[in-house]
């Protein structure tokens, strides 16, 4: 089926105009005012609506064995949630444990993702770097992965030694890969956690004090030094505070190639959510933690000024019952993560554009275009242009919706946004020319998402 999307207000990272979009097969074949309708096309009336490029979530976890349990979504449920929320491509962290073979892990993750109805690719997690794994990473790059993920946090699980960090960044520089990094000081967090638990401070409200902003800033600063030394291009994931932004800014002044991601929870929740009584706060435990409200203002500001390039989610869905509850007597055992793959685009629109914090171009740029550019998907993804994949979101700015676990698609037993009133909403979504969401309802099929192969660009 071919489609002519008519009369909408088309927004890209740089443009804003009224026009039509012609979709033939999987591709956009024309964009402009009053296009002719070829025989047999279906018209989609977008009058009064925005026409956005499909959104890209640069940071999600779907299959994730972590902290003694496993994330609750499957690729089938997470991709459906992504699509109804306007996300047509996600980049998942492929996170093997340090005693696993990276190539086997990559193949396992590919296998798991077979049920996705959303397009996807992976940041390849490096939890061990030596001669054996190096060969496997070379093979994974040949198979179309152009970005890596390192953890400076999670002592004893994912965190790398400093020597491995150096070797990984040197490898990345040689192969033109961008290295995404979770920046916190694993050692200091372990020490503070033990101290707090020893003092009987066991509730979720102690999660933030166990990893304060300066411990995140230290991680960022350390990554900057390694990037400066090796010349590797790096990307700080889920940056949560002004201290970390300062560490990035000073490095940029030294010509370090660094980009910054903020994730939705850090923009819209402050640390008081993790202090909710009755262990409710556990729903808001993620790392880096939710911060004091002044850091939210810093992150919005940095998004406006484009010191922050992208908005992701760090979707990491753990049920409240049976999973978050594992940490009832010890906050260090609460599986980290706030499920939000479904909410990113709409809440960013509602809280960002709707409340005058960011403009429409910044919204599209940070939620789609920048991720495509940084991770080797542009211009196939991330814009509305002739020749691009026909990934299109038709968005009704006048829709009013209430967010609830009762109606969401994510396979998790709570919504962090329960009861939130949302201004604007996703109406229709096309992915490579196929309608996946019609009138807000998922109409896609599991397994129709594609693994997107990418070429390295960060030399
Ligand atoms: O709390 C988080 N962020 N959970 C997922 C793992 C990670 O650190 O990205
Ligand atoms: Zn992380
Ligand atoms: Zn993550
Ligand atoms: Zn680069």
TrEMBL record:
<dbReference type="InterPro" id="IPR006680">
    <property type="entry name" value="Amidohydro-rel"/>
</dbReference>
<dbReference type="Pfam" id="PF01979">
    <property type="entry name" value="Amidohydro_1"/>
</dbReference>
<dbReference type="GO" id="GO:0016812">
    <property type="term" value="F:hydrolase activity, acting on carbon-nitrogen (but not peptide) bonds, in cyclic amides"/>
</dbReference>
<dbReference type="InterPro" id="IPR011059">
    <property type="entry name" value="Metal-dep_hydrolase_composite"/>
</dbReference>
<dbReference type="InterPro" id="IPR011778">
    <property type="entry name" value="Hydantoinase/dihydroPyrase"/>
</dbReference>
<dbReference type="GO" id="GO:0046872">
    <property type="term" value="F:metal ion binding"/>
</dbReference>
<protein>
    <submittedName>
        <fullName>D-hydantoinase</fullName>
        <ecNumber>3.5.2.-</ecNumber>
    </submittedName>
</protein>
<feature type="domain" description="Amidohydrolase-related">
    <location>
        <begin position="50"/>
        <end position="435"/>
    </location>
</feature>
<keyword id="KW-0479">Metal-binding</keyword>
<keyword id="KW-0378">Hydrolase</keyword>
<comment type="similarity">
    <text>Belongs to the metallo-dependent hydrolases superfamily. Hydantoinase/dihydropyrimidinase family.</text>
</comment>
<feature type="modified residue" description="N6-carboxylysine">
    <location>
        <position position="149"/>
    </location>
</feature>
<dbReference type="InterPro" id="IPR050378">
    <property type="entry name" value="Metallo-dep_Hydrolases_sf"/>
</dbReference>
<dbReference type="InterPro" id="IPR032466">
    <property type="entry name" value="Metal_Hydrolase"/>
</dbReference>
<dbReference type="GO" id="GO:0005829">
    <property type="term" value="C:cytosol"/>
</dbReference>
């Amino acid at each position: 089926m071919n489609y002519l999307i008519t009369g909408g207000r088309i927004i890209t990272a740089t443009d804003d105009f009224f026009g039509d979009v012609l979709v033939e097969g999987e591709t956009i074949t024309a964009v402009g005012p009053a296009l002719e309708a070829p025989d047999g096309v279906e018209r989609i009336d977008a009058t009064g609506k925005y026409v956005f490029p499909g959104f890209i979530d640069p940071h999600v976890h779907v299959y994730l064995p972590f902290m003694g349990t496993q994330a609750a979504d499957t690729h089938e449920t997470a991709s459906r949630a992504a699509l109804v929320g306007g996300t047509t491509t996600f980049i998942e962290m492929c996170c093997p444990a340090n005693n696993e073979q990276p190539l086997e892990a990559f193949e396992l993750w590919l296998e798991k993702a077979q049920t996705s109805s959303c397009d996807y690719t992976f940041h390849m997690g490096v939890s061990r770097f030596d001669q054996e794994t190096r060969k496997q990473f070379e093979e994974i790059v040949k198979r179309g992965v152009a970005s890596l993920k390192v953890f400076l946090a999670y002592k004893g699980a994912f965190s790398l030694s400093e020597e491995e960090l150096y070797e990984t960044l040197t490898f990345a520089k040689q192969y033109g890969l961008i290295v995404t990094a979770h920046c916190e000081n694993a050692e200091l967090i372990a020490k503070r956690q033990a101290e707090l638990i020893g003092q009987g401070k066991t509730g979720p409200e102690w999660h933030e004090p166990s990893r304060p902003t300066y411990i995140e800033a230290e991680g960022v600063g350390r990554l900057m030094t390694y990037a400066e030394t090796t010349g590797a291009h790096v990307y700080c994931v889920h940056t949560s505070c002004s201290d970390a932004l300062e560490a990035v800014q000073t490095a940029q002044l030294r010509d370090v190639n660094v980009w910054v991601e903020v994730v939705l929870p850090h923009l819209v929740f402050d640390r008081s959510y993790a202090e909710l009584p009755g262990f409710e706060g556990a729903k808001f435990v993620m790392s880096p933690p939710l911060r004091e409200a002044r850091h939210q203002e810093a992150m919005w500001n940095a998004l406006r000024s484009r010191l922050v390039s992208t908005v992701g989610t760090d979707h990491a869905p753990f049920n409240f019952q049976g999973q978050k509850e594992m940490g009832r007597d010890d906050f260090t055992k609460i599986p980290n993560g706030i499920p939000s793959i479904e909410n990113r685009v709409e809440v960013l629109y509602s809280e960002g554009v709707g409340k005058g914090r960011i403009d429409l171009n910044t919204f599209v740029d940070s939620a789609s275009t920048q991720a495509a550019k940084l991770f080797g998907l542009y211009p196939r993804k991330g814009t509305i242009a002739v020749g691009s994949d026909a990934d299109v979101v038709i968005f009704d700015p006048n829709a009013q919706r209430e967010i609830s676990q009762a109606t969401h698609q994510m396979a998790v037993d709570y919504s962090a946004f329960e009861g939130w009133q949302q201004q604007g909403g996703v109406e229709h979504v096309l992915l490579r020319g196929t309608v996946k969401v019609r009138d807000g309802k998922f109409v896609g099929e599991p397994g129709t998402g594609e693994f997107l192969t990418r070429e390295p660009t960060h030399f």
